[in-house]
Amino acid sequence: MSEKRVTFASKIGVVAAAAGSAVGLGNIWRFPSQTADGGGAIFILVYIGCILFFGIPLMVSEFMVGRASRANTAGAYHKLAPGTQWKWVGRLGVLTGFVIMGFYMVVCGWTLIYIFQSISGHLAGVTDFSSNFIDLQTNPAKQIVWMTIFTLLTAFFILSGVKKGIEQSAKILMPLLFLLLIVLAIRSITLDGAAEGIRFLFKPDMSHVKSTLFLDAMGQAFFSLSLGMGCMITYGSYFNKRTPLVKTAIQVSVLDTLVAVLAGVVIFPAAFALTANPGTIVGELVAGGPGLLFITLPELFNQMPGSMIWSTLFFCLLALAALTSTISLMEVVTLYIHEEYQVSRKNSTLIVTAGVIILGISASFSSSFFNFLDVASAKFMLPIGGFFISLFVGWHLDRKLVYAQLTNERTLKFGIGFLRTYIFLLRYVVPTAVLAIFIYGLAA
Ligand code: TRP
User: What's the pTM?
Assistant: First the structure.
């Protein structure tokens, strides 16, 4: 099976597909609500620290495990560590994929609903955007219908094949989304009263620091970079032997962080400028939580000429960015069932689709179950997965294999100091830091 595996066609396709997985609702929906909750600038600083210290080294590690094994997340451990218990790390990853999809698809459904509210002109006529969103959140039937449609759409792409489905869409859509965010950011920061929002985003204010700051920021970093469940292992398994792992990980992380911060620059100035009562704005932002994007953005569009076109375009691109992420999530779980249990690709996709829809229905009925899935994955399962992946690469994998992967069999020049630093990070720094933050966050 390993020889027949397809690989991504081009260099740009590699970055685009991995970035397509990373960039999604995590950046544009979850990042702003976590930033509001975490106190603004201080959260962003810790978040960026997490990207640099754990994110990039771990992404390189996942790519490496994938390319060295050319197998799905769980199969990768069978191949690189046969007969050991490491396979549980892979299985944990597959389970995590399910848990994430369980609530992620619900939010994907919201984006579809907002596309139709935009096209029909409904959004342009709304005066109270928070009750518009609350109406939606308290309507399980509507959420279930659109969540199911989105899940089926994802399944369709999974069945239509890796190259066509993932690569092509990501290559065109990511740049377009990026451009649109820049336009929106300019509109947002030129609103009257936007300055407060900029200050909230970029000037650290220690009075908002929460005791779970580090765990929240770390969880968001894992979530946003698609790390800790083997998603990047699956993508790494499609890399060819010339794909530079370190460079690709840096490019993907930089792009992902830019999109998240840009989304913040769109949302916060607008939220500060457009909210009626600036005195309690921070409290309102935190309370707005999961709805922030769906409340503030339509409000911003209504400040722009041609609001209908902007909001339609934005929610379409957002849905497509989300789709490249759900494809990556579903791919991990589908490939696992397909390769490990000798189930056909089609049946495996059907099983996964049914499972996700069941979870999604539960999450649509209960916002506390929704939150449970979110917290369980981002703050527990992904960091635990990341912890074990770093131990696996740092301690279990043969150092020669690690060096060969990093340097593409010595065709890339890295100093020995760099290679040693990488191993040192994965052996000691990443696992200790992840564990410390995890325990501290739980105790807090
Ligand atoms: N990173 C994606 C986002 O930001 C979501 C995602 C896709 C993900 N694959 C993942 C999160 C794997 C964690 C693990 O929207």
Answer: 0.94
Q: Is any ligand 1 atom within 6 A of the Cβ of residue 223?
A: yes
Q: Are 326 and 22 in contact (CB under 8 A)?
A: no
The phi and psi torsions of 196 (rounded to 5 degrees) equal -55, -40
Torsional class of 292: left (φ above 0), alpha (ψ -120 to 50), beta (otherwise): alpha
Identify the residue whose C-alpha is closest to ligand 1 atom 7.
325
pLDDT in tens, 217-240: 999 999 999 999 999 998 898 888
pLDDT tens sequence across 369-420: 999 999 999 999 999 999 999 999 999 999 999 999 999 999 998 888 999 9
Contact 99, 385 (CB under 8 A): no
Query: Ligand 1 centroid vs 444 CA: distance in angstroms?
Result: 26
pLDDT surpassing 90 at residue 160? no
Atom of ligand 1 nearest to the CA of 21: 7
pLDDT surpasses 60 at 2: no
Give SS3 for 120.
coil
Helix or strand or coil: residue 305?
coil
Q: How far is the CA of 101 from the centre of ligand 1 (A)?
A: 9
What is the enclosing helix (H) or strand (E) of 292? helix 292-301
Separation CA 229–CA 233 (nearest Å): 8
